[in-house]
Structure formats: structure tokens, C-alpha cells
Amino acid sequence: TQLLEQSPQFLSIQEGENLTVYCNSSSVFSSLQWYRQEPGEGPVLLVTVVTGGEVKKLKRLTFQFGDARKDSSLHITAAQTGDTGLYLCAGAIWNTGNQFYFGTGTSLTVIP
Amino acid sequence: DVKVTQSSRYLVKRTGEKVFLECVQDMDHENMFWYRQDPGLGLRLIYFSYDVKMKEKGDIPEGYSVSREKKERFSLILESASTNQTSMYLCASSPQDRKNQPQHFGDGTRLSIL
Fold first, then answer.
1. In chain A, which residues have their Cβ closer than 8 Å to the Cβ of B48?
2. Which residues of chain B are within 8 Å of residue A97 when distances are taken between CB atoms?
3. Does B90 reach chain A within 8 Å, measured CB to CB?
């Protein structure tokens, strides 16, 4: 059983459209990270959110940490072909040091 | 920039072989991790290490072992490879001195067991 479930698993959209990816759990996390992975490469960190209700923006990407620290969302505005990739959320649980639990992943394809 | 290097991008081995996957990082990080990545399952932690000669089991350690003899090197060992260990293997490192530090990943080793 995965600790973090992401939805949707696959997403294919036209360039210019908006989209939201969800990361949900029944567990409480001390912090949550979002990574993007491109084909043939390892995941690369996009953002870390640490406070319940926190919202962070990275250009056209908006990340939100749920008030109860159990879920998170990633919203992309006006998607571009360069946004194509696998998006992974990863949550840290209190007192587990630097161990992060990764979500199931969302594979995004942006069509020109 | 942090560099995490995995020794092989692609590897093909036979059932029953002993397989070694090597990972080296150049940023003096205390923490190192081995994950396997399968479609629809995300990344699952196999083993991690907080220091030289220290190792901790992750979520799926069965069939694997690890070795950390030097701080910069973390090896994953498949004692007797089986076909269900065909997967993408990712190594990562992170510093221990501060919370919520990102994990820095290698580019992965795609392992096929025939």
C-alpha cells in the first residue's frame, strides 16, 4: 500500500491548458516536496512546503500544502511542452530523519 | 552542483547472478538512499544509510543488501537476481545537518534480469 496516492496517474493536455495534480494521504507529514523527472534522468526538486496551508509559486507552477498537512496539489497554468515529465510528491514524517515517502507519480504530456 | 553518479545506465543480467549497483556522490553528504522505480508505484525505498557502515531497511529490502564502506559510495547488491527485480534503480544523497533538504538523484540504472 502506497502512503501517498497521486491523481491522475496519466494526463495528456494541449499546450496552453491548465491542470492540477493531487497528492493525497491519510498520514500527516512534517513537510512535502515535489519533484519532476524527465526521461532518462533522476528526479529534480521543484519545491518544499512545510507549513499547513502554505502556497508557493514557481513561475507558472503553484504548489499548496493542505491545512491538515495530509495532502498537496500542484497547479500548472498555461502548460508548455517543456512541462512534460513525471511529477512526484514526497512526504517526510516526523522523527524519521531525512527519509521521504514518494507518491505514485503523475505522468504529464503536453501536446503542441 | 551536487553530482550523484551511478556506474551503469543499462545492465542485463541472468537469473541467479549476484549483481552490484554502484553509486558515488561528490558533496560529502551523510545520507544515501537506494530506490526502485516501477510504473504506477512511484519510488519505493529499498535501503538507506546515515553514515559509513550504517544501514537501515526501507520498505522493500527483501532480496537486496547494501554496503557503505566509504562516505561517498553506496552499493546495492542483489544476492541472487530474480526476474521480479527487473526495474529502474535510483540512488540519491542528501545532507543530514538541516531538515527538509532535497534529495539529489543519479540518472538511474535500468536493470533487466533474464
1. 99
2. 31, 50, 96
3. yes
Residue range B15-54, pLDDT digits in tens: 999 999 999 999 999 999 999 999 888 899 999 999 999 9
Query: Whole-angstrom Cα distance, residue B108 to residue A40?
Result: 8
Q: How far is A55 from A72, CA to CA, in rounded Å?
A: 10
Q: Average the pLDDT over A46-65 and give the result.
A: 95
| Cβ–Cβ gap A105/B100 under 8 Å | no
Domains by residue range for chain A, with CATH: 5-111 (2.60.40.10)
Amino acid present at B37: Q
Note whether A43 contacts B90, CB cutoff 8 Å.
Answer: yes
**Domains in chain B, start-ordered, CATH in brackets?**
4-113 (2.60.40.10)
A98: nearest Cα among A41, A48, A39? A48
What type of residue sits at position A85? G
